[in-house]
Amino acid sequence: MAPSPLSALKTALKSGAFEPAYHFHGDEDFLKDSWIRDVIARATDPATRDFNLETRRGGEVDARTLATALEAMPMMAERRVMVVRDVPSLKKDARGILLKYLDRPASDTILLLVSPAGAKADAELNAKVVSVPFDTLSEDALVKWVAHRAGQLDVTITPSAAELLCSAAGNDLALMAGELDKLRNYTNGAEIDDAAIAAIVGVTAGETLADLLDAVAQRDGTRGIRLIAPILLQPKTTGVSIVMALTTQILAIGWAMAAKDRGVAQGRLESELFGLLKANPSSITGRPWGEAVKVWVRAMPKWTAADIDHALPMLLAADRALKDSKVSTEEQVLVSLVLALSAGSKRRVAA
């Protein structure tokens, strides 16, 4: 099996043997910028970098200027790097120059083409270059990225502290990178633990989005309501993001129940749910996938198909209310939602 484009780029970064042209695209702009810096650092000599690094922006370069830049030779070095940002904004004639160049790219130039988050797929361009997608990271990948980033800063972070940081920062890599810088300074190079996260980021174990999701999964409305206020104070956490995570959870529990009804063995439900997440990597789970699927399977006895059907309209109504600035506060909407989602267990206990 051929390596993924990103794996191949990692190999090139180690060996220094780059392809003539790459297209960085996808929604994770922070990762694109990080890899651009890494390629420049590996492919150019600091002593001659100013002569052999050129950066252009698509909407600001005309065809003649682009052609001249692409035809330039390295100065006092074996190769040069050219970065063209916002490639989709290239005018038609400039794009034509670029596509013609890519038919026979120079061997002494590494061309990095960059499309911003939200840009449409460009099949014509991707067919001529090494296409490297930088998609939004899943919760599992975020935790791994935090550990990797900490290592780059010559510091370690405990697994639980990494999960706490992710629960606070969501998928905002720039925010997490900034927090890691603060945490490294706070610990003076010592291992980053839960206490450090609480002191610097303001997130305490037991008061995370994952804890709220656990409470709702187990139909524990009292605990869930108590968690709403501190969770809403955490960075990058909004009422809408909480509802999205709750929706993923409710749908996953319902999907697992339906799978069991179809004859899927209880012992296979976790792996089936993990496969579902791999097929839908943008799903907001609020925690690492491995932890999420265990919670969902464990919560199944607390729910019925009717409960799931009843919960979905409530989640939609809460989402709409949170996006309407004229209605209740975020906390009020979420308290009502958590109470409604938790009510079913009380009816079954009474029965």
Number of domains: 3
How do the helices and strands follow one another from N- to C-terminus?
Answer: HEHHEHEHEHEHHHHHHHHHHH
CATH class of the largest domain: Mainly Alpha
How much beta, percentage-wise? 5-15%
Percentage of residues in helical conformation: 55-70%
CATH architecture level-2 label of the largest domain: Up-down Bundle
Helix count equals 17
Shape: elongated
* Number of separate strands: 5
Radius of gyration: 24 Å
Q: In order across it, which strands form the biggest sheet?
A: 2-3-4-1-5
Distance between the termini: 56 Å
What is the CATH topology of the largest domain? Zinc Finger, Delta Prime, domain 3
Largest sheet: 5 strands, parallel
Mean pLDDT figure: 91
- Low confidence ranges: 345-351
Structural class: alpha/beta
Please describe the topology of this protein.
Blueprint: H1 5-15, E1 21-25, H2 29-43, H3 49-52, E2 53-57, H4 63-71, E3 80-85, H5 92-103, E4 109-114, H6 123-126, E5 130-133, H7 139-152, H8 159-169, H9 173-187, H10 194-200, H11 209-217, H12 221-232, H13 239-261, H14 269-279, H15 289-299, H16 305-322, H17 330-350
Parallel strand pairs: 1-4, 1-5, 2-3, 3-4
Helix pairs in contact: 4-5, 7-8, 7-9, 8-10, 11-12, 11-13, 12-17, 13-15, 13-16, 14-15, 16-17
Describe the protein.
By secondary structure, the chain is an alpha/beta fold. It folds into three domains: 1-7 and 80-88 and 100-134, no CATH class; 139-200, Orthogonal Bundle (Helicase, Ruva Protein, domain 3), CATH 1.10.8; 209-343, Zinc Finger, Delta Prime, domain 3, CATH 1.20.272.10. The protein is 59% helix and 7% strand. The chain contains 17 helices and five strands. It has helices at residues 5-15, 29-43, 49-52, 63-71, 92-103, 123-126, 139-152, 159-169, 173-187, 194-200, 209-217, 221-232, 239-261, 269-279, 289-299, 305-322, 330-350, and strands at 21-25, 53-57, 80-85, 109-114, 130-133. A five-stranded parallel beta sheet has the order 2-3-4-1-5, sandwiched between helices. Helix 7 (139-152) crosses helix 8 (159-169), helix 8 packs parallel to helix 10 (194-200) and helix 11 (209-217) packs antiparallel against helix 12 (221-232). The longest helix has 23 residues, at 239-261. Mean pLDDT is 91; it is low at 345-351.
